[in-house]
Amino acid sequence: xxxxxxxxxxxxxxxxxxxxxxxxxxxxxxxxxxxxxxxxx
Length: 41
Hints:
Order of helices and strands: H
Strand content: under 5%
Largest sheet: none
Protein name: YhfH family protein
Shape: elongated
Pfam family, one: YhfH
Oligomer: single chain
Distance between the termini: 38 Å
Organism: Psychrobacillus soli
Radius of gyration: 12 Å
InterPro entries: YhfH-like
């Protein structure tokens, strides 16, 4: 069972910034959807 969960996360596509479309360098399961350049926090 644990192996299936790990395989699921390994197969997730890379996240892209919702503003510019650049690939986000972070964990794919993270809730953020903007890159560092477009993040306005």
